[in-house]
Amino acid sequence: MQKVVNISLNGIAYQLEEPGYNQLHSYLERAEARLKDSPDRAEVMADLEQAIGEKCRAVLGPHKTVVSTGEVERIIQEMGPVEAADPQAANTTADPGGAAPAAALPPPRKRLFQIREGAMWMGVCNGIAAYINVDVTWVRIAFILLTIFSSGLWFVLYLVLMFVVPVATTPEDRAAAFGMPFSTEELISRAKKTLNSSASSTAGGANGAASSGSGTGSFAT
Predict the structure, then answer these.
(1) Per the domain annotation, does 95 fall within a domain?
(2) Domain enclosing residue 23, as ranges
(3) Most CB contacts within 10 A, which of 80, 147, 176, 195?
């Protein structure tokens, strides 16, 4: 007999065996600790909880309402480690005979989705822009011009794509739309890059303002 704990992942309730709950709670706490200074912490944690929740839901059914500890362990393994891999540690585990390390895994295959976030209508142009890696503005302009010069034929094509192309509803779907790997470490790394870029921009602006102020003082003297 195993004690069961009720939890909420991104607003949806699940039942986990207590050892599995403890492992998942520790995993999410470590992820949140790595994001403590990131302004995107809430968004990243919501994506993580949604992805984990969907994996939990996949193992449940009409006659199975509890996620077992073994299933939680497998889900955590699928999500990947919270901590970044240490390159030095990886080098020490290489073949002592000097063999080359194993080739890196190929990037995930891109998939075409409708991306509703930031969409002006249904997200078809967003999805195409992500798939071909161009700015969505150019895709929208192309659709407008092609619709005008084709007497509306391309608008009909847009409507067809609305019904044929799936909507990116999960973090995994959104990652696949951009051809990016989806893992906990990948989400955290992206949030940290955003934070570092913001910090660099702020520091650059502050240095520029300080230089400007210094020059003005010098001129006044």
Answers:
(1) no
(2) 4-80
(3) 176
Say whether pTM exceeds 0.70: no
Residue 172 CB neighbours (<10 A): 18
Helix (H) or strand (E) holding 17: strand 12-17
Same domain, 73 and 119: no
Residue 141 vs residues 136, 144, 218: alpha-carbon distances, Å: 9, 5, 50
pLDDT in tens, the chain (221 residues): 779 999 999 889 999 999 999 999 999 999 888 888 788 888 888 888 888 998 898 899 999 999 999 999 999 988 888 875 444 433 444 444 443 443 444 556 788 989 888 888 888 999 999 888 899 999 999 989 999 988 888 889 989 999 999 988 777 777 778 777 677 777 777 666 665 665 555 555 545 544 444 443 432 32
Q: Are 146 and 154 in contact (CB under 8 A)?
A: yes
